[in-house]
Design brief:
Elements: H1 2-9, H2 18-26, E1 31-34, H3 41-51, E2 55-59, H4 63-75, E3 80-83, H5 89-100, E4 106-109, H6 117-124, E5 128-133, H7 156-159, E6 165-169, H8 174-183, E7 190-193, E8 201-207, H9 211-220, E9 227-230, H10 234-246, E10 251-254, H11 260-271, E11 277-280, E12 295-298, H12 305-312, E13 322-328, H13 333-341, H14 346-364, H15 369-376, H16 390-393, E14 395-400, H17 402-414, H18 421-429, H19 434-439, H20 455-467, E15 471-474, E16 480-483, H21 485-492, E17 498-503, H22 522-539, H23 543-546, H24 549-558, H25 563-567, H26 574-594, H27 607-610, H28 612-630, H29 635-642, H30 646-658, H31 665-668, H32 671-684, H33 690-695, H34 702-714
Parallel strand pairs: 1-6, 1-7, 2-4, 2-5, 3-4, 5-6, 8-13, 9-11, 9-12, 10-11, 12-13
Antiparallel strand pairs: 14-17, 15-16
Helix pairs in contact: 2-3, 13-14, 14-20, 17-18, 17-21, 18-20, 22-24, 22-26, 28-30, 29-30, 30-34, 32-34
This protein binds adenosine-5'-diphosphate (ADP) and magnesium ion (MG).
């Protein structure tokens, strides 16, 4: 297992629960796993695909996701394919053929296939080593993503009694969990409920005032970083995307009102790093597996913590630091309440209201965001300071708030508990408004009693009193403030109340405990990102499928300038090393040459020193190419014989030449051309290929230039 993890996926170690899940799958046990977004669920079924004899069949709800996952698996050298309605008939037939010929290690299908008898008959003839149901909550009517097609999956265990079935989801309340297990008819499954803590996510709440300006300022600090901004309505999505575009920030909208085609185009552009910001309603959801989302902003208040947590969960799947910011204004509450009030079922309405209150508390209470989120999901974070939220990194002071609370609540009480927040604050601060004069509230005893402190302070007191349940908001259209039992105790009794007050400016933020991997060379990252984008475009896949941000960040910490260094970077398995290693090594080398001052930290695990298995594999592929070359075959013939790209063989040649192996350069580039190319390198005083190619106006190939360069470097010219 660990060899496959390293060689195929390029990872050093398993994430929590992956190993035990895979072990159970290999022991043919059913599995039910709840792991947070980014927890690494795919690996739990992709790794068995590589090491079991039969095919792993994955049922996944979204066509767009399927293609990306298959692309990603193929990049890792897994024989993967998908069947869904987007395939042309011929394509589907060829997948079926491969399936029947036992050529597929991994097959993704849409749930509706299980309604097709023909498909089931085909599957019966194939040894299926695992059925993996991804996004398994889609089978439950109680969940929020119910898909009727998923109900067909309840037949799997009956039709294929010998194959284990594993169900994965990131969202399951106990009720949904039971429902999934029943509906899928899992046979006493091995069950995992992972921690929902996402240590690399930084949580932050800011008061919403002048949102557009706040967002522009925020984005200016996150230039070129991919991120999602959630808004509630289609109109606000469109308006914000326009505003940002006018300010020169590339942003595209996404909401259910756009045509399917528009949505697809915009999502792709985001996926492929062509546009960094997507402004979206929550319709932009499950279809995003992009691992390098660096921030998720909620520009409006979400309805509940489940939704909020799920949406923020789309940030930082790669495990690198990502930021989740909620812009909170109480002005958003009435709109949500309005929708809740429309609900006809009393119980449902009460539940929705309760959830909204918890969301508001999360946003308004000055205590550790991470603890509050995890607490909501029944998890005890334990640590007092998480180190990665605005509260824990800011200076928080506990202050006695009894006197201020009494001033405010007295104003509430003396005006008959019939007014909203703004008006009450106006009374306390002694504002001279028309309404106050009309209602003669300037004669209330506490009028102006808090005039020595500004409105922001009083808003803070209101938030604290609400969060601590000393006052509540009541009323349909116009929520008014009322005292609770606890509030009366403070106003009329002797009870005290304290509040956690946050002091700006916040300290520089870092990763949470155990999250993020520290700083990296951002200048180099920019260069590597450009290379990644080019390679991704050639392969027609999203950039994060070539390498995740995490992998690039690691390169920008360790500066791997040769194959063995590259092999030691997390996320680089054999297949990717072969395909992309050189392109990145080249850039890093040039960068190091241009910046001689950079000191390279030692990496604890050098891939070569402690991974003999891996080393051998590497040697083998080069040796094969070398042997073929020695037999007199051309680069094209070798590529064909080895079923590898010409560019791959070319890079083998390059490595072999540089390693000093006996490669007859005359066979690769004729002497006269070699001479001209070599001279140009010397004239240009640079090892860059492009200027050379440009100079010869296409009469010299990229490969030829590469070989000559390798030859010259070997001889230390
Ligand atoms: P999920 O489906 O649970 O949301 P994914 O399967 O998409 O998560 O994995 C999220 C990211 O984590 C991917 O970029 C994946 O490559 C990476 N990942 C998975 N397992 C590991 C591991 N053991 N070590 C490092 N990265 C991993
Ligand atoms: Mg997933």
């Amino acid at each position: 297992m660990i060899d496959t993890l390293k060689n195929v996926f390029g990872f050093e170690s398993f994430r929590p629960n992956q190993e035990v899940i895979i072990k159970n799958i290999l022991a043919k046990k059913d599995v039910f796993a709840v792991m947070p977004t980014g927890g690494g669920k795919s690996l739990c079924y992709q790794l068995p695909a590589k090491i079991t004899k039969g095919t792993v069949v994955v049922i996944s709800p979204l066509i767009s996701l399927m293609k990306d996952q298959v692309d990603a698996a193929r990049e890792n050298g897994i024989a993967a394919a998908f069947i869904n309605s987007s395939l042309l008939q011929g394509e589907a037939l060829s997948v079926y053929r491969d399936l029947k010929d036992h050529k597929l290690e991994l097959l993704y299908i849409a749930p509706e296939r299980f309604a097709m008898q023909g498909f089931i008959e085909t599957l019966r003839k194939v040894p299926v080593s695992l059925f993996a149901v991804d996004e398994a909550h889609c089978i439950s009517e109680w969940g929020h993503d119910f898909r009727p097609d998923y109900l067909g999956l309840s037949r799997i265990t009956e039709i294929f009694p010998d194959s284990p079935l594993a169900a994965f989801t990131a969202t399951a309340t106990p009720k949904v969990e039971k429902d999934i297990i029943n509906k899928l008819r899992l046979r006493s499954p091995f069950t995992v409920r992972a921690s929902f803590n996402r240590p690399n996510l930084f949580y932050k709440v800011r008061s919403k005032r002048g949102l557009d300006t706040q967002l522009v300022e925020f984005l200016s600090k996150h230039k070129d970083e991919p991120g999602i901004i959630y808004r509630t309505t289609r109109d606000s999505v469109t308006a914000l995307a326009d505003t940002l575009t006018h300010k020169g920030i590339k942003a595209l909208p996404y909401h259910a009102g756009l045509t399917r085609e528009e949505r697809k185009t915009n999502q792709e552009a985001f996926n492929r790093d062509e546009v960094s910001v997507i402004v979206a309603t929550i319709a932009f959801g499950m279809g995003i597996d992009k691992s390098n989302v660096r921030f998720v902003v909620h520009a409006d208040l979400p309805k509940n913590i489940e939704g909020y947590y799920q949406e923020t969960g789309r940030a930082g799947r790669d495990g690198e630091l990502a930021e989740c910011v909620l812009f909170f204004g109480r002005g958003d509450i009435p709109r949500i309440r309005y929708f809740i009030d429309q609900m006809s079922d009393d119980r449902e309405r009460a539940v929705a209201m309760d959830k909204l209150n918890k969301m508001v508390m999360y946003a308004s209470h000055n205590s550790c965001r991470r603890s509050r989120l995890l607490e909501y999901f029944g998890e005890d974070y334990g640590d007092e300071n998480c180190g990665a939220c605005d509260i824990c990194t800011g200076t928080v002071k506990r202050v006695d708030a009894t006197v201020d609370a009494q001033i405010l609540m007295s104003a509430v009480s003396r005006t008959g508990q019939r007014f909203g927040i703004r008006h009450v604050i106006d009374i306390v601060t002694g504002a001279d408004t028309k309404r106050i004069r009309e209602l003669q509230h300037n004669e209330v005893k506490t009028y102006g009693a808090g005039g020595h402190k500004d409105k922001r302070h009083w808003q803070f007191i209101v938030d604290e009193l609400l969060a601590q349940d000393a006052i509540c908001q009541d009323g349909d259209r116009y929520p008014v403030l009322k005292l609770t039992e606890k509030g009366r105790g403070i106003l009329f009794g002797n009870e005290k109340i304290s509040a956690l007050k946050r002091e700006e400016p916040e300290k520089k933020q870092g990763a949470g405990k155990g999250g993020g991997l520290g700083p990296y060379d951002e200048v180099l990252f920019d260069k590597l990102r450009t290379v990644r984008k080019k390679l991704a475009d050639v392969q027609q896949v999203p950039p994060y499928i070539v390498f995740s941000d995490r992998t690039l960040h690691e390169m920008c910490r360790h500066y791997p300038a040769d194959i063995s260094g590259m092999a030691g970077i997390s996320g680089i398995g054999d297949a990717k090393l072969e395909r992309y290693g050189d392109d990145f090594i080249r850039v890093i080398k040039t960068y190091l040459d241009d910046n001689p001052g950079i000191s390279i930290p030692e990496k604890k695990h050098s891939a070569l020193s402690c991974e003999p298995v891996r080393n051998k594999t590497k040697g083998e592929t080069f040796n094969k190419t070398y042997d073929f070359f020695k037999e007199g075959r051309s680069i094209k013939e070798i590529a064909k014989a080895r079923n590898l790209a010409i560019s791959t063989i070319a890079s083998h040649f390059e490595q072999l030449i540089m390693a000093g192996r006996d490669m007859d350069i005359d066979r690769l580039v004729d002497p006269e051309r070699r001479d001209r190319i070599g001279k140009l390198f010397l004239t240009l005083q640079s090892w860059q290929l492009n200027p050379v190619i440009e100079h010869f106006k296409g009469t010299v190939s990229y490969e030829e230039a590469k070989f000559v360069r390798a030859y010259m470097q070997r001889k230390n010219v």
